[in-house]
Amino acid sequence: YASGWIIPAVAADRRIIKNQKFDGILATGMPWSALVIAWILHRLSGAKLVVDFRDPWVGNPFHTSKGWLLDRSENFLERKIVTDAALVTANTTVLRDEFIARYAGKVDTRKFMLLPNGFDPDDFSNLATSEPQRSSEPSPHLALVHAGNFYGKRDPAPILEAIRHLDRTGVASAESFRFVQMGSIHLEYDFHERYRDLEERGVVVDLGTFPFDECLGKLKSSDVLLLIQPGTKSQVPSKLYDYLCLNRPILTMTPLDGALGDLIRENEFGDIFSPDDVAGIASRLNELLREKQEKGGLWADYPLRGRFDIRNIVAGIEQRVGEIPVRPGNPRYPLPSQKAFIFLLKFFFRFPAKL
């Protein structure tokens, strides 16, 4: 993935390392080529290697095979990188435990560390998230907003079929809902053709993509925030952590026994349904619609979200990185400040896709 930059990146970074004699190299993936570059530099320089996985590489359910040779190459590269790394971080407990199971008996599994995604309160300092004012006239519809791309198995069909179910059974008209999508749509079927009837009735609204700050503003104006993560048990979409700061109800569709399902339940981050539970999703949508009509708006609070404040997360990685021994003969350079660590982790969490 993005392999074209490996050779020029290694050449440029090699010169930097020779001139400044770094003790360690930190790389995050995806793209996995970033880990390959860091591994090559580690082998050339002897600097300690720290690799961070924001998604699974081997065994990723969204992976599209490009042939057995490339698949075997990826397995080989992950094994070599993980074996050589002094520290390997994973963003979910399920992913960390997959590494432990895959490499038990081959490496010291104490090197595998949980490093969850998180949020930086500074990102929301200019965004008012106060409780909506009660309206004398309830809004005519329930705004369900999703931020992020739809592709592969990440399919909004469960929520849209739930709206159709309510409409067909006469419980609530489809026009009582607005499904708003912000992000690209690349599914295995023609999304706009399948849901043309709902688009024509104003139920489905495809807004396309927006810059992060503008996206937050549109999310803030929603009634319910959607997490749609079927087909994988090891991934947690980073948009969840942004959602937590907006104080709106979160409705999640994902396998109940996966990393996201466990996180939602353990921290009481809203409602969770299996993607095939269309009836359950429909029932909850109807409850939220009635609640909005009664109160004039919806509000939620998440007392446990502080666990994912990036300032708290940084403290753990600072300690572990500080424990990695420095190469003999190399001076110990001071660790970056907490502010610098926060900047790096925010960049890693947001790129290539914050939402």
Descriptors for this entry?
355 residues, alpha/beta, six-stranded parallel β-sheet, four-stranded parallel β-sheet, 13 helices, 12 strands, 41% helix, elongated, disordered C terminus
Describe the structure.
The chain has 13 helices and twelve strands. It has helices at residues 6-20, 32-45, 68-84, 93-103, 157-169, 191-194, 196-200, 212-220, 239-244, 259-267, 278-295, 310-322, 338-350; strands at 24-29, 48-53, 87-90, 112-114, 142-147, 150-151, 177-182, 185-186, 204-208, 224-228, 250-253, 271-273. The strands form three sheets. A six-stranded parallel sheet has the order 9-7-5-10-11-12, sandwiched between helices. Helix 2 links the parallel strand 1 (24-29) and strand 2 (48-53). The chain is elongated and about 70 Å long.
